[in-house]
Automatic annotation (TrEMBL):
Record-linked SMART domains: EGF, EGF_CA
Protein name, as recorded: EGF-like domain-containing protein
Pfam families in alphabetical order: EGF
Classification of source organism: Eukaryota, Metazoa, Chordata, Craniata, Vertebrata
Residues annotated as domain EGF-like: 171-213, 214-255
Signal sequence region: 1-21
Keywords: Disulfide bond, EGF-like domain, Signal
Molecular function via GO: calcium ion binding
Species the sequence originates in: Otolemur garnettii
Length: 290
């Protein structure tokens, strides 16, 4: 709470950078992998897109009920970003931020929360010169995983404490068996929920497996008369399953009865509606009789 009031006080004092941009970050609960890389521009400014409360504003907590907590957890920051490996991130500074010499630094999670900058070496600065205009973030800073970027200033107010810091989570996909294969074998979607660390296949039944490459041939319940179905996922035979029948049933789908429906028992017709003790002959046209 003390932290909270200190921050609020600093906000009032430093009202030339006022948080008119306080916001609730919008995001989709589930994202589908995009085969084409996207480009994101983050405005490095306090006038828009700054969220305050970790649970309520930064991560729309209503779509993450598992994260349930009533605690306020105030970490003013630019709306956290979730992107894909290979996406392009551009940081765009605002003219009013020009006077102080500012740069952006890669830090650990703890340093992100506390806005500690002095212990981290020079080589953690994202840009070779101070922030001015648009800068593309080199891909070395955007490997798969979560990255924390804070504002460093030569002197003056801690712009980081006020919210000029960014949490970027870069996600990989595990939806292709090989680089050339179809996503989820064409039988599912490559998805990631907000708190997932990666994209994975969500298969359409009857397909399953890491890449939706397996077929559950038993899902259509092909074995009649309470026979058990063994799924071979297409590897066994064309059907992909085998029926284990209870006597007296037999046949590939347990619809035949041992001894009944012997070849030609129905002279001109088909044997059907088989149960343990009966069957009927479906007669061909022009024929009749049992
Ligand atoms: C960033 O600023 C530009 C111009 O100032 C604006 O058009 C754009 O919508 C802003 N982007 C975001 C993500 O707020
Ligand atoms: C960014 O900072 C983290 C935490 O200090 C560190 O583990 C990581 O190696 C840094 N990334 C690069 C590319 O130096
Ligand atoms: C950063 O974002 C990730 C999700 O992308 C989240 O799990 C993590 O808690 C966030 N870290 C902080 C310090 O806000
Ligand atoms: C079907 O088979 C299961 C076990 O294989 C058995 O428990 C069940 O009673 C059988 N149901 C019928 C209708 O025969
Ligand atoms: C075969 O059985 C089904 C259901 O048990 C019944 O609806 C159908 O009429 C029967 N067919 C004949 C030809 O009796
Ligand atoms: C008997 O089965 C054959 C082949 O499945 C089919 O062509 C024919 O129409 C059937 N006859 C009757 C009476 O259902």
């Amino acid at each position: 709470m003390i932290n909270n009031s200190v921050i609020i006080l600093s906000l009032v004092v430093l009202c030339n950078y006022c948080i008119s941009g306080k916001t609730t970050c919008s995001r989709k609960p589930v994202e589908e992998w995009s085969p084409q890389p996207s480009s994101y521009v983050v405005n490095w400014t306090l006038t828009e897109n700054i969220c305050m409360n970790f649970y309520k504003d930064c991560w729309d907590f209503s779509i993450n009920p598992k994260m349930g907590t009533s605690d306020d957890h105030i970490v003013p920051q630019i709306c956290p970003l979730q992107i894909q490996v290979g996406d392009v991130l551009v940081i765009s500074s605002e003219p009013s931020l020009q006077p102080p010499e500012i740069n952006v630094m890669n830090v650990s999670e703890a340093s992100f929360i506390d806005c500690v900058q002095n212990t981290t070496p020079e080589d953690q600065l994202l840009f070779g010169c101070r922030l001015k205009g648009k800068h593309t973030v080199n891909s070395q800073w955007l490997s798969a995983g979560t990255h924390y970027f804070i504002t460093v200033v030569a002197s003056g107010p801690s712009l980081c404490q006020l919210g000029l810091r960014l949490n970027v989570t870069v996600k990989q996909q595990f939806c292709q068996e090989s680089l050339s294969s179809e996503f989820c074998s064409g039988h599912g979607k490559c998805l990631s929920k907000v708190w997932d660390k990666t994209y994975r296949c969500h298969c359409q039944p009857p397909f399953s497996g890491k890449y939706c490459q397996e077929l559950d041939a038993c899902s259509s319940k092909p074995c009649k008369n309470n026979g058990s179905c063994i799924n071979y996922g297409g590897k066994w035979n064309k059907q992909g399953y085998e029926c284990i029948c209870h006597p007296p049933f037999t046949g590939s789908d347990c619809s035949e009865v041992i001894g009944q429906c012997e070849p030609n028992i129905c002279f001109h017709g088909n044997c059907s509606n088989i149960t343990a003790h009966s069957f009927i002959c479906e007669c061909d046209e022009h024929f009749s009789g049992k």
